[in-house]
């Protein structure tokens, strides 16, 4: 996108059709982008079955989204298996580690670890510098989750990665009476829930980053937002409820969602302003800060993160990177960098690139209320 916020369009028949979009279609597109490129079938299910608050009725569309196409990697069929499902939260938790990523994240991480509750399919993600931090993150997750749900974590299912089979990990599980199930080596099917969740997360993260042409180091922000969104998306394993609701018993709201990676202006309080005209700071929207009910922004020029409730978004815009930055080989996930396919948790959308979602005026923010930690 050009710095003047106009989208250069070269018109051919297909693109002309885009310009004739109806308001309804634009709205569907906006939500496709806000929900991390969630497919229209899932969007329709979310809105039609009233699984979330604040989502308008969505009508499916046929067009192809370039970011979705690029973001999605080879499809792999995982046999889901007919293993017994948990009957309460924290009866069984699946965990997996992804990485190392080629590029260190803004926060200095090279891995992430997920914990997925079998009963609700709600997922939590933590970022790691080293795999050895897995036990610390598991401790943190266990304390938080048990406090939320008021029940003990019973079974943890993981693969045989060294980080899960260390003496310390073993001792910790024994101490807390957690049964640690290790899946057979080279048999990802057995750890299917965690593996599929990872694929779904990566597909969504890639689409969001590619959709906004962000550099690679934004992967962790995208992964975190993908997990946040997937907890508010339909999953095949829980009928007519989002994982969020299956976990805590109330419907999530999506009113506060904005398009990941768009340009956002953080209001600068009077006392911090140097000049009268510097009323806001231009940043990139990189996520939700649920604890403080605010948005996470990042200023690529100062390399500083900002948490703010007072934000104006330009959801159809992308940051204009200097040529220098843009030419760095492989923006974010290179095509083919990550093996894997479509998870079963949420179907990603198919639809078209060129047209930005909705007409561009910024939307003033009201603080939102919903959500749990990094989940
Ligand atoms: Zn898309």
UniProtKB/TrEMBL annotation:
Q: Indicate, by first and last residue, each region the UniProt record lists as having compositional bias (Acidic residues).
A: 334-347
The family database entries (Pfam families) matched by this protein are listed as: gag_pre-integrs (PF13976), rve (PF00665), SH3_retrovirus (PF25597)
Q: Where is this region: Disordered?
A: 333-375
What is a biological process (GO) this protein takes part in?
Answer: DNA integration
Q: Where is the Integrase catalytic domain?
A: 85-251
Classify the source by domain of life. Eukaryota
Q: Name one GO molecular function term.
A: nucleic acid binding
Which segments of the protein form a coiled coil according to its record?
none
| Record PROSITE patterns | INTEGRASE (PS50994)
The molecule here is called Integrase catalytic domain-containing protein
